[in-house]
Design brief:
By secondary structure, this protein is α+β, with helices and mostly antiparallel strands. It folds into two domains: 101 residues, no CATH class; 121 residues, no CATH class. Helices cover 18% and strands 24% of the residues. It is built from three helices and 13 strands, in the order E-E-E-E-E-E-E-E-E-E-E-E-E-H-H-H. It has a nine-stranded antiparallel sheet, with no helix packed on it. Strands 10-11-12-13 form a four-stranded antiparallel sheet, with no helix packed on it. Strand 4 and strand 5 form a beta hairpin. Helix 2 runs antiparallel to helix 3. The longest helix is centred in the C-terminal third of the chain and has 23 residues. The protein is elongated and about 55 Å long. About 9% of the residues have low confidence.
């Protein structure tokens, strides 16, 4: 726990915090990450002189922390929108991490004082399932009718009409590590070695298209005779991602 009058200095590597120091420049915590974003593997708690290791669920949320002996130190569970419940090694509910672990829902940092998650571009309140500020990409521009939306933004980002919504109200399947755009954990179409930034962007667009049109992977081989309109929308999603990935690989 950090007192209200304490100062914490954060050291970043790109978008990720790799160390925290107090006002006397004494290290408080160090973090070691995997290859993906929001994938802490290990935390060194300098004040305790201990290493702790992270364990995840399929969404990338931290569900347990173990020590160097493999003993469970804390466990974490969440409601649908990320409200955390922390338990100690005895299974008792505690108000905050006893070892200073900040990473919880979808691998993001939880601020103990405010109860908000830091999603880089903005903060998220799990108690109401909303960001506390609007999507910063949605630049208000007044058109000739007096509306504050750009047509191209509305077409590419349908959630623009609800700019405070977290993951299109689908928090159990989607992520938003930058606080800018919902996406699924990884690419559903290609193995990791093909997931360049370009291909990953194609996959994000495809996954978003699937969510908006209520599609699933069966649309690749199903004619969906029972719902031809839905089949048309899903087929459009698939054709778009194929064209996008071709440009990434061959252009």
């Amino acid at each position: 726990m950090v007192a209200l009058n304490d100062t914490t200095k954060y050291c970043y590597d790109g978008d990720q915090v790799i160390a925290e120091f107090n006002e006397s420049d004494i290290i408080q915590r160090r973090f070691f990450y995997g290859p993906g974003i929001d994938e802490p593997i290990c935390m060194y708690a300098g004040t305790l002189g201990q290493y702790y290791y992270y364990h995840y669920d399929g969404l990338g949320s931290v569900v347990a922390l173990t020590d160097s002996d493999g003993a469970v130190v804390e466990t974490y569970s969440y409601d649908a929108f990320g409200g955390p419940t922390i338990r100690n090694s005895a299974g008792m509910v505690i108000s905050e991490s006893s070892v200073g672990n900040p990473y919880m829902f979808t691998g993001r940092r939880l601020d103990d004082e405010t109860g908000l998650y830091y999603y880089r571009a903005r903060y998220y309140n799990p108690s109401i399932g909303r960001f506390i500020s609007r999507d910063p990409i949605l630049v208000p521009i007044i058109d000739f009718r007096g509306h504050f939306w750009m047509l191209e933004i509305l077409m590419s980002r349908p959630h623009a009409l609800t700019p405070y919504t977290y993951c299109i109200n689908n928090p159990i399947n989607l992520l938003d590590p930058e606080g800018l755009k919902p996406q699924t954990p990884g690419c559903d179409l290609f193995p990791d070695f093909l997931e360049t930034a370009c291909v990953g962007g194609c996959c994000d667009q495809h996954d978003y298209c699937y969510v908006v049109n209520n599609c699933d992977m069966s649309s690749w081989w199903s004619d969906s005779d029972d719902c031809p309109l839905a089949a048309e929308d899903c087929d459009r999603c698939n054709k778009q991602v194929v064209s996008c990935i071709r440009r990434c690989i061959f252009w």
